[in-house]
Amino acid sequence: MTDPAPRARVGGPLVVRTPEELRRALADAGRVGLVPTMGALHGGHRSLMRLARERVDTLVVSVFVNPLQFGPDEDLDRYPRDLPGDTRLCGEEGVDVVFAPETATMYPRPQMVTVDAGAMGDRLEGASRPGHFTGVLTVVTKLFQLVRPDLAVFGAKDAQQIALVRRMVADLDLPVEIVGAPTLRDPDGLASSSRNVYLSERDRVSALSLSRALAAGADAAPEGAEAVRAAAQAVLDKAAGAVPPVELDYLALVDPATFADAADDHRGEAVLAVAARVGPTRLIDNVTVTLRP
Ligand code: AMP
User: Fold this and answer.
1) Which of 48, 91, 105, 171 could form a disulfide with 101 if both were Cys (CB 3.0 to 4.6 A apart)?
2) 132 touches ligand 1 (CB under 6 Å)
3) Is 266 one of the annotated active-site residues of the chain?
């Protein structure tokens, strides 16, 4: 393919709302990159855009709060939404196209056919949020079909999500390269997240014990899997008594490819993952540790 004409981004990215507008925007687009998001964009999303920007001619960011991946008692209605702010941020990162469909555009009829995430989709996040990964993989597949990206970037912050997307792409022979981006953290160590806006000042202090627990676990990696779990658990036990308390959902050390529990004699990389509620906010975080290489 010949080089496409450089895109004028004066005035910011092109915002498109429908598959038809998207198709028009992507005619003659060259190599296309996609960063799927739910909006309320922050530094973590920026880092994904920067990774993609270097490698493609046309960069698409999708902004869509996907109802299919929210449970009935979850925060779908109050999830932060700010398309003008998101569009500005995308402009700063050299994004060419923002695809921001309405729910009725993505789901014009009840979604009958979905992507089954298999056993990996029932663990950790999937156990706490039944159906979550079916919703994620279904919308990611739809976005891949609509945008037809050459590559798509996902964050390690959602470790189980990127592992499942990689596995889906492999198992279903989807013609897209999946690129992983490291977790961006705020200066205090808290993983950047759109949901951090829910945290009060006091919540935030308690929430810091998640990243502290992961760091303690990582420090214990030379002593093996049990030591990693114990070191992280000790921090979380203490945080359970903080005000407000950190209410642990799960702490798990898992195989990065399957998200099955790492055996006590596991060697090589493992993911130490945590989910907890602080006040009204559910937070997740993880770190990759190397056990007895
Ligand atoms: P979300 O908008 O929360 O659905 O996230 C969209 C993408 O950004 C996903 O691939 C996330 O894993 C990624 N992401 C979210 N927060 C971070 C972060 N702190 N660091 C790196 N990637 C992130």
Assistant:
1) 105
2) no
3) no
Q: Taking Cα atoms as reference points, which of 142, 153, 114 lies closest to residue 36?
A: 153
- Topology annotation, domain 194-286: Pantoate--beta-alanine Ligase; Chain: A,domain 2 (3.30.1300)
Same CATH fold assignment for domains 14-181 and 194-286: no
pLDDT tens track for 116-169: 999 999 999 999 999 999 999 999 999 999 999 999 999 999 999 999 999 999
Contact 275, 124 (CB under 8 A): yes
Ligand 1 lined by 80 (C-beta under 6 Å): no
Ligand 1: residue whose CA is nearest its atom 5: 37
Helix (H) and strand (E) counts for the chain? 9, 9
Q: What is the mean pLDDT of residues 171-192?
A: 98
* Ligand 1 touching residue 233 (CB < 6 A): no
Ligand 1 centroid from CA 102, angstroms: 21
Per-residue pLDDT, 10: 67
Q: Does domain 14-181 have CATH number 3.40.50.620?
A: yes
| Domain assignments of the chain as residue spans, ordered by start | 14-181, 194-286
Q: Write the pLDDT tens digit of every residue in 75-123.
A: 999 999 999 999 999 999 999 999 999 999 999 999 999 999 999 999 9
For residue 216, the tally of other CB atoms under 10 A from its CB is 19
